[in-house]
Amino acid sequence: MRNLTRLGYRRLLKAGIRIYEWDGVMIHAKTCVADGRWARIGTSNINAASLLGNFELDLVIEDKQLARALEAQYRRDMAGSLEVVQHPRNAPRALQRVVPSRLVPAERGRSALTRSSRELRHRAMVGARRLINAAFRSLFGPASVVLVLLGVLFLVFPRWMGLGVGVLCLWFAVAAGIQAWWERSP
């Protein structure tokens, strides 16, 4: 997902904009403060798809004390963020202009050992959950496509598909019978 969000970064970095990515545990909520007075907390991305097409919730609050607290939290979060920088790829000189640079987080002086054990456990759990979800998607995505195609074929060609399944069942039965015959005890 991170690479998907970085699609527009190169153009912004070339324009001189500095981009930081949070490197800690997070929830899917965004905050915005205007004039030290107005605060917005919510899940929308402030674009047409998010505001009109998705079921998202934003809360707009006029409260100077809350706005100051959110600004202070933002400054604390920036201390735990990494700046995204461009690194040239190792490519032949002729291709240097064509091959895009790598976008990587800048090195930070803070060691991973300074993180609390709770944060490390949480990050490991989130990483494991992402890995498991990706495995489920890679298994169930293609399986659902195959099942949809089979369902459509059964609806369109019921006789031929029935014959095909019957032949397949007979083939499996013969193969299982032969295997059982060869594996029997003497």
Structure, described:
This protein has 186 residues and is of the alpha+beta class. It has a domain of 121 residues: Endonuclease, Chain A. The protein is 52% helix and 16% strand. It is built from six helices and six strands; from the N terminus they run ααβββαβαββαα. The strands form two sheets. The chain has a three-stranded antiparallel beta sheet with strand order 1-5-6. Strands 2-3-4 form a three-stranded antiparallel beta sheet, with helices on one face. A hairpin with a 3-residue loop joins strand 2 and strand 3. The protein is elongated.
How are the secondary structure elements laid out?
Elements: H1 2-5, H2 9-14, E1 19-22, E2 30-34, E3 38-42, H3 48-53, E4 58-62, H4 64-79, E5 81-87, E6 102-105, H5 117-156, H6 158-182
Antiparallel strand pairs: 1-5, 2-3, 3-4, 5-6
Offer a few descriptive terms:
three-stranded antiparallel sheet; about 15% strand; alpha+beta; elongated; Endonuclease, Chain A
What is this entry, summarized?
With 186 residues, the chain is of the alpha+beta class. It has six helices and six strands, in the order ααβββαβαββαα. The protein has a domain at 2-122: Endonuclease, Chain A (2-Layer Sandwich), CATH 3.30.870.
